[in-house]
Amino acid sequence: MLLSSARSTQQRNMAAIAFILTLRVDKAAGNVAAGNNKGEHAALCEFIAMAQQEVEAPHLESLDVEAYRRVHLLNLTLSDDDWINKFYTDKTRKTTKVSSAEAGLDDKGGKLHWDNWKWAAERLTAQPEDTKLKETGAMQLSGLAKKMAGVAIKGIAAKAAKLKDSFPEEALPADASKQAATAAAKKLRDAAFGGVDTALSTLTQATTFGGTPANNRDVECKTQGPGKGTHTALAALACVCWQGNTNTVTHGVCNKAMEGQTGWNGNSNKPGTSDLIKLAKSCGPAGKRKVTAPRLRKAITSLRNLITGHDIGNHYLGTFITGGCSGSSDSGVCIEFTILASGTEDPLSKLPWIAKVEAAAAELEKLTQVSPKAQAINIQLAAAETEANQAVKRAAAEAEEIRKGNNNPTVATPALRKTICEAHNKSKTECLGAQCKWGGKKDDDGPCIVDESKVAEQTTQAGAGEKKDGAASTGCAKHGTKAECDADKKVDKQNCAWRKGKDNEPEPEKEMCRNGSFLVTKQLALMVSAFVALLF
């Protein structure tokens, strides 16, 4: 059974090869033979079919507006009252202003961001309360916690705004994929039938040829002029399949369905509307296959590969014998690409309808290129929303630590030092009073940053508890062994820990007895004291 099947397959393959060789011999022989342009017919019919099929555009993610707006809602919630009140018609905050201009915010980013700011203002005072906003705890913050959270959120909001502004313009419409598919489909109909809204049932001689073909077939089916046979894919199909009025090809040069046509002879027997519809239908039913960018590119390449050169300096699509593309069996049934054989120019560039197909492919490929960027930005926006929510909770926790320590925190984290200084970006006096460093050129325009030299100096003085001669005198540093260090505790709370240093502690690589947590230095205490005094 298997041997018989293999033999049968081999016989079919040999028959196919023989048929192809026959076609090649016929094209090289003295006359155009039946079926010589079968390949050209199939290649052009692919464009006819795609003009009738559904275009499938790559899926595009729309901008995650919700995540972006949530960050800005937190930013507004944690802003000072003067800023918040700018968005409302009065201090009851029941009605938002209608425009950035009315709010006086055009020069503060309002022209770009008003829609999202207005949304945030409406959600802030919405009734019932915005559930997600309530869950963040931002509305319950006050004083130090609110100030610390506000500083953190401001940076996250700026980052979110940059992400939004970098979102691909092509992906901004909610129905971007649908729009691209519709635009590509219009281009394909225009390329095949001569009109963006022209279908197989509504095409005419004029739409197909771009006018009335008044000349003989060999004049209309050449690129120099250009001939009207180069106007659409269907016109090109007429040039490679429609016979002339003398020495016609028996049984049809493309397929038997086109046998018995009235020969194309100048202005008298040119293909009419009904003839062209019949020609298009010779391609068979369009089917339900989807049109994609790779399929369009493949169709263009397949057509290009069928174009052949000739020693007289022209290229041809279809069978050429001698003289011109008159449609007669002793001359040629073809499209002539005039005087192109000696150059490097792409012959298909002389067919205006091909440019429309390439534009349709580019329309779809553009979405393929921007899709990963759109997806990546949305992921980052979602992460920014999460980061903002966490920043609120972290600020509340750090503020609580400060309160528990009588406004003198016990953990000197770099993030806390940074937050305290950034809270004074608008005042040089307050910045210096908090023992920070002023980096602005104006007294009301920072930045206010951590003065690392002071932090390091105070850390050296207070972190280890040593005398000038290097001998440990107080604190955990006085314990010389791990056992002594572990024994230093109050009830069940460990005061000291045998460990390496962290942050700005001295000798960070050395294991020694250190404070259980990195005690705040005088520098930080002064910073916090000045900061807290402004808020409580």
UniProtKB/TrEMBL annotation:
Q: Does the keyword Signal apply?
A: yes
In terms of InterPro entries, this protein maps to: Trypano_VSG_B_N_dom (IPR025932), Variant_surf_glycoprt_trypan_C (IPR019609)
UniProt subcellular location: Cell membrane
Query: What is the topology of this protein in the membrane according to its UniProt annotation?
Result: Lipid-anchor; GPI-anchor
Name all Trypanosome variant surface glycoprotein B-type N-terminal domain ranges.
Answer: 20-382
Instruction: Describe the location of the Trypanosome variant surface glycoprotein C-terminal domain by residue ranges.
Output: 421-535
Domain of life of the native organism? Eukaryota
Q: Can you list the GO cellular component terms from the UniProt entry?
A: plasma membrane; side of membrane
User: Which portions of this protein are annotated as coiled-coil regions?
Assistant: 374-401
Q: What is its main location?
A: membrane
**Any idea which UniProt keywords this protein has?**
Cell membrane, Coiled coil, Glycoprotein, GPI-anchor, Lipoprotein, Membrane, Signal
Described by its record, this protein's role is as follows: VSG forms a coat on the surface of the parasite. The trypanosome evades the immune response of the host by expressing a series of antigenically distinct VSGs from an estimated 1000 VSG genes.
Q: What is this protein called?
A: Variant surface glycoprotein 324
